[in-house]
Amino acid sequence: MRVLKLFFILNMVFGIFFQVSAKEAENQAGHLRILNEDNTNWKQIDDYSVLLDWGFHPDQIDLRFRIGNSPEESKTEFLVFLWSHLDSVEVCDLKNNCQKAGFSHPVNEWLVPGIFPVFPLRKLLDESPEINVKIKSRNYILSEVRLASAEDLYSITIFYSGIVFSLLALVIIQLVYLINSYFRLRAKWIFYQILFSVGMGLAFLFVSGIASRYLFPNFGFPLSLGKKIMIGSLIITGTLWVSHFLKIKQNFKPVWHFYNIVNILTAVGIALSFTKFPRQFVSLCFTILYLAVTVTAIVLSIIAMKRKTIQTRWFVMSMVSLLAIEILNIISYRTFFSFDGRSFLFFTAFFVPINIFLTSRSVRTRIRELEAMIALKKHELENFYKNSSDPSLDPGNEKRKSTIIGIDVEDALSRLNRLMEEEKVYLEEELRISDLAALLGLSVHQVSELLNQVLDISFPDLLKKYRIEEAKRIISTDASVNILNIAFAVGFQSKSSFYDSFKKYTGVTPQEYKKSVSKE
């Protein structure tokens, strides 16, 4: 798999380097000029290219082009709207004979099906070198219009398609690894990471035009709408992935509520994209939400790394790379909403493989932790049951303590006390004995013996004891706090479990304890 990833990355790098460094061959397709006097929203790039920059423009744009100095041998000229997301483009001769393309029209209805709008000019130029172009799109209108020969068109298509397919191949390789890991470990965060990677692959397919060309050629689907759906799905699946990877619900409850709000707002934004609601506003909201979620994930992963609860070094770097992609795209835009296909292509080609590499390393590190934890737990439990069947290791026998003498019991108890009293690890809802063992640097068997033989308490009872004491402290501090909120805040998963444990350790119910505190 590493060899395949390296192959596709090198393929993209060399392809882009060749495209950038190679000298342009003599173009045999004549020259292109716009005849409109007002050049506020367009710029002549060279003899064969014009850059259109109208931004979000609700009305139809009407332009007149002149194609000149076409040599006799060039009979297959094409007008290409490179890497554009335009909903509808019409190219007409002066008698109003028109050709239609654009992603709101099925690709199979285009005269030249492709990954961006392409128009053959041979018939349109029979009587006059001038043509009319009509553009209407709800997406940001920023497109390079190029006059190209058949050879140029083939080269451009192969180059762009090669980069996109190489990126998709990287995503597919990562998906295979993630799916295999999920079926082995059944961890929720792996499932949401799979959904995030699928969303990233779909984003490549739709934004590049590959999906419209090869998957849904008979279905007109505006890319301006597709982008909103894809970005929205990435935000939702990304927040779910980060939430479960960093255990935000257990360790950072306010952030968990914030992420839920983000997902609700994102779902509303996706729904609004299907209406006539301004997509410019939706784009701005998605940009802000994306940045907020990513920055928050970076901060929380650094906190988790300092607490040494999760190994998040690679995860931090993968989140930073996602943030870098977005920031660089924003900087390259003339505004928050513009879209430069060329800059997008290069940012995608260089930074997405980097992000896939960093994400893969963070996933691999976490999976190895889970596998080691599961193997350790299984091995230690097997040893525990095996030793427990030996009469010489009876719990009442003094020899039973000999298995933990070598670990410096006092130091282990001191570290345990610090974890419980200062760091309050018991507040984590899904804390397991294997997690505590990892924090103490001991095995599950040693921690179990330490609790049972030295402290004379089981692991579940230890957690309940500290959680009930924390609940009593919260009630004593503020008797107005809701009982159910207290239960979840101290690590209980249900109200009934909290009530039963509270009554067991205090002799009264939480409500009775609250009343006694209020009277005092």
Description:
This protein is α+β, with helices and mostly antiparallel strands. The protein folds into 3 domains: 30-148, Sandwich (Immunoglobulin-like); 153-373, Rhopdopsin 7-helix transmembrane proteins (Up-down Bundle); 424-447 and 454-518, Arc Repressor Mutant, subunit A (Orthogonal Bundle), CATH 1.10.10.60. Helices cover 59% and strands 11% of the residues. It contains 17 helices and 10 strands. It has a 5-stranded antiparallel β-sheet with strand order 1-4-9-6-7, with no helix packed on it. The protein has a 5-stranded antiparallel β-sheet with strand order 2-3-10-5-8. Helix 7 packs antiparallel against helix 8.
Task: Looking at this protein, list some descriptive labels.
520 residues; alpha+beta; Immunoglobulin-like; Rhopdopsin 7-helix transmembrane proteins; Arc Repressor Mutant, subunit A; 3 domains; 5-stranded antiparallel beta sheet; 17 helices; signal; Tscrpt_reg_AraC-type_HTH; transmembrane; Helix-turn-helix domain-containing protein; sequence-specific DNA binding
Topology:
Elements: H1 2-21, E1 31-34, E2 42-46, E3 49-55, E4 61-68, E5 78-82, E6 88-92, E7 98-101, E8 118-120, E9 130-136, E10 141-148, H2 150-185, H3 188-208, H4 210-215, H5 223-245, H6 248-251, H7 253-273, H8 279-307, H9 313-332, H10 341-388, H11 409-421, H12 433-440, H13 444-454, H14 459-477, H15 483-489, H16 495-506, H17 510-519
Antiparallel strand pairs: 1-4, 2-3, 3-10, 4-9, 5-8, 5-10, 6-7, 6-9
Helix pairs in contact: 1-2, 1-10, 2-3, 2-10, 3-5, 5-7, 5-8, 7-8, 8-9, 9-10, 12-13
